[in-house]
Amino acid sequence: MIRKSTLFLISLLMVLFTVEAQETKEEKADRMEWFKDAKLGIFVHYGIYAVNGIDESWSFFNGYISHEDYMNQLNGFTASNFDAERWAKLFKNAGAKYSVITTKHHDGVALWDSETDHYKVTKHTPAKKDLITPFVNELRKNDLKVGLYYSLIDWSYPDYPAFKRDSVRYSNNPERWARFVDFYFEQLDELSSTFNPDLYWFDGDWEHSADEWRSKQVREKLFSYNEGVIINSRLNEYGDYMTPEQGVPVAQPENPYWELCLTMNDSWGYQHNDHNYKTPYQLLRTFVDCISKGGNLLLDVGPMQDGTIPKPQIEILEEFGRWTSKHSEAIYGTREGLPEGHFNGPTALSKDHKTLYLYLDYTPESPIFVHGINGKVENVRLVGRKTKIDYQYNQEQANLAVNIPSEVCDPAITVIAVDFADQVKPGEPETNQAMEEFAKLAKNQAWNQKHLPLMGKVKPGISTQHFAGNSLLSKDENILYLLLDGKPNGPLMIKGLRNEINRIWVVGNATKLSHQILGKLYWSEVPGIAYIPVPESVLDPEATVIAVLLDGPVSLYTEEGQVIESN
Question: Cα–chain-centroid distance for residue 236?
């Protein structure tokens, strides 16, 4: 009780005497710099829901299981193999610069030794130990920034209004709501005074307004403990950065600070039967998209109830470690790349804007081109390997051609660095690149005869934001043609396609191809990502054309992405 009173008094005094000055753009940039530079974080969803391997909190809220049966998982949560040191080293070796762990999900179970009168693993589970303290300590030993996930929602707390989707405890009771706000403010005081996190990752703000949550006061409270703290967007309008889920924004986010949170399979927490893992290549390709748009990837792991991280997740993290250690120069501290029309693929710029990074998810058979970049090119090199790269730069036309030997390409994503004497200045982008490339191919008589009669009249295709390569459309826009130069390192990726895909085939030999949609939630309007594996046996030595038959004229999603209420 003495500790509670002291914490409350200290918090009240700090908030009362904190004069909230309007933060300038430059001051915010300084505060956010480590986050902007970090690029990769690891999200940890750990809690009692791993006992049965079911959806965290939502399973009882949606009525898939009773609240009583859900909370009975407390009896099976042992954390017997929990090893904070091993976790932290694994995350660091993967290339992460920060980690965010669930201190309390919507079920209300605290993973630290909270003095509030509510569920906690130190008292109500066989684990009988604080899991947050050792993890935070190990993160700091490994020079990783500390992020704490905290659910504003608490569906198990007796004074919280919502209980299940079809039932509430009360609808208008200011006294009970005030008790809940006092409770969660006290928990935030504990987290800040005990752990002093670098970042708060809130969740659940959609259930109440900023005034009801007292979001402004929450922000003031957290800054009174740490004036450099960073807060995600889920504190109504009082956060610092946006948090899209499960899919990279198609459009460039307006907020310069953002982070994609992404599961390795289809679940945040551990689920016994979820073996639908994305491949390391698919996840690395998504990571590169985040880098190219100036954002971060917060990649999720879901440990088993005993604290063991599943083997498939470890293998993914190890492949991230291989790729990030090799290409660190082209990851950390970079900024968003060139606008559309300059290069068919992701790009990024060094912080001083004097180096341009090109990311290739295929092994090219011919030179790659960068269009409309002004400045003096001093060198072109392969990142992560000392290999001479031949290039030709036409300064008058502002075009760069780079020849990349196939034997030096990375099995996942190759990175080329283009060093300039001064800052890169994008000029006029190439607006009709796909049609020009198609016209060049059509001059090859053998290729022409094999492909053109089967394609008919075509028009320019979709944006490189949706497909990182050249594409065309049939006259009625029902068929999307993807032009491949070289050998893809993994499945082709189409983002933001609203249409259903009816059939996919290789033009010229009629081989039918399969596809997979990942990241599509049935109740969300945001499309999933379409992945199309292309076997090497069907590739054309000049250029391969993949035909994608749609259920109607092509329709594309072009928004930034959205917060999904399932975290």
Answer: 20
SS3 200: strand
The pair of three-digit structure tokens given for residue 29, joined into one six-digit string? 């940039």
Show pLDDT as tens, one digit a residue, over the chain (567 residues). 444 444 444 444 444 344 345 889 999 999 999 999 999 999 999 999 999 999 999 999 999 999 999 999 999 999 999 999 999 999 999 999 999 999 999 999 999 999 999 999 999 999 999 999 999 999 999 999 999 999 999 999 999 999 999 999 999 999 999 999 999 999 999 999 999 999 999 999 999 999 999 999 999 999 999 999 999 999 999 999 999 888 888 888 889 999 999 999 999 999 999 999 999 999 999 999 999 999 999 999 999 999 999 999 999 999 999 999 999 999 999 999 999 999 999 999 999 999 999 999 999 999 999 999 999 999 999 999 988 899 999 988 889 999 999 999 999 999 999 999 999 989 888 777 888 888 888 899 999 999 999 999 999 999 999 999 999 999 999 999 999 999 999 999 999 999 999 999 999 999 999 999 998 877 778 899 999 999 999 999 999 999 999 999 999 998 755 544 445
Q: How far apart are CA 289 and CA 273, in angstroms?
A: 29
β-pairing, 479-484 with 368-371? unpaired
* Nearest alpha-carbon partner for 139 in 64, 14, 38: 38
Q: How many CB atoms lie within 10 A of CB 128?
A: 12
Q: How far is CA 81 from CA 71, 77, 147, 202, in A?
A: 21, 11, 22, 27
Tokens coding 361: 């998810």
pTM for the model stands at 0.93
Both structure tokens of 390: 């031949």
List beta partners, residue 202: 150
79: left (phi over 0), alpha (psi -120 to 50) or beta: left
Where on the phi/psi map is residue 411: left (φ > 0), alpha (ψ -120 to 50), or beta?
A: alpha
Q: Which domains does the chain have, with CATH numbers?
A: 32-326 (3.20.20.80), 335-426 (2.60.40.1180), 433-550 (2.60.40.1180)
Return d(Cα 72, Cα 22) in angstroms, integer.
Answer: 47
Q: From CA 46, how far away is CA 306, in angstroms rounded?
A: 10
DSSP string, 227-276: TT-EEBS-BTB--SBB--BSS--SSPPSSS-BEEEE-SSS-SS--TT---
| Strands 487-488 and 362-363, sheet pairing | antiparallel
